[in-house]
Amino acid sequence: MVAVTVIELASEEASVTVHPGAGGRLASLEVFGRELLHTDPARGPLGWGSYPMAPWAGRVRHGTFRFAGRDEHLPTNLPPHAIHGTAYDATWEVRDAGRDYCALQAPLAWPFGGVAHQHIHLHPAGLTCVLTVYATRTMPAVVGWHPCFVTPDRSSLEFAGMYRRDAEGIAVREIVAPKPHPWDDCFVEPRSPLRLAWREVALELTSDCDHWVVFDELPGLLCVEPQSGPPDAFNIGGATVLEPGEMLQRQLTFRWRPPDRQD
């Protein structure tokens, strides 16, 4: 284990700050001199940087679900629901770090135990994050990321469908046509690459996750969140069931370039 409190990664085009003690999150992502993320911890742990979500992502209705014949209860950290797992405000151990990469690990503080691992790699044209959950007993799992972007000048976020939300604002097991903005919704099947653009930088997000939550209900903030399953997956389906010794792994890549002249 490497005893550090802040990790700084750098390339010719970008600099990244990782805070192991604040949920193992990207605290800053600056590209071509432009900060892309909200960086103020005063926004609360759910509202800044880009943080990992594990062992669930999004809301779990009333913090309760049934698994293997038992009722399970989670802390309702966004009353009356549980949201975004336990990793986003955990203290992560630094297992390794260099000029352009780091590896972090944290236990999962929930009834099923397990361990989460991150590998973050800054390369010439982007940043790749790999998030892995390892099971020590049979458990459900969903993983993902929650980047809190400064609202871009332009965005291209088009999807074939979205999960309908009910009166409590929770996704239900029904796919409908996307509604107009503002969004706090889970989408599937991107119709084209997911792109954001500021004056200084054009950004494309790619992931092997098949669900994307987009949140733009607050001024100045845009969250584009890849997830391995939908919100409330423990109740509506879509979680991965892991046996002891098995893992769930997904990756997210931020790929950047200077904006085109027509952007």
Describe this structure as you would to a colleague.
- With 263 residues, the chain is mainly beta.
- It has one domain (7-257): Beta-galactosidase, Chain A, domain 5, CATH 2.70.98.
- The chain contains 1 helix and 25 strands.
- The protein has one helix at residues 233-236; strands spanning 7-10, 14-19, 25-31, 34-35, 50-53, 59-60, 64-67, 70-73, 82-83, 93-97, 101-107, 115-123, 126-134, 139-141, 144-150, 154-156, 159-165, 171-176, 184-190, 194-197, 202-207, 211-215, 221-227, 240-242, 247-257.
- The chain has an 8-stranded antiparallel beta sheet with strand order 10-11-12-13-25-21-20-16, with no helix packed on it. A 7-stranded antiparallel beta sheet has the order 5-15-23-22-19-17-18, with no helix packed on it.
Features:
263 residues; mainly beta; Beta-galactosidase, Chain A, domain 5; 8-stranded antiparallel β-sheet; 1 helix; 2% helix; globular
Number of strands: 25
User: What fraction of residues sit in β-strands?
Assistant: over 45%
* Biggest sheet character: 8 strands, antiparallel
**Sheet with most strands: strand arrangement:** 10-11-12-13-25-21-20-16
As residue ranges, the low-confidence spans are none
CATH class: Mainly Beta
CATH architecture: Distorted Sandwich
Query: What general outline do the C-alpha atoms trace?
Result: globular
CATH fold-level assignment: Beta-galactosidase, Chain A, domain 5
Task: Write down the domain tally.
Answer: 1
Order of helices and strands: EEEEEEEEEEEEEEEEEEEEEEEHEE
Supply the helix-strand structural class.
mainly beta
Percentage of helical residues? under 10%
Number of helices: 1
Distance between the termini: 44 Å
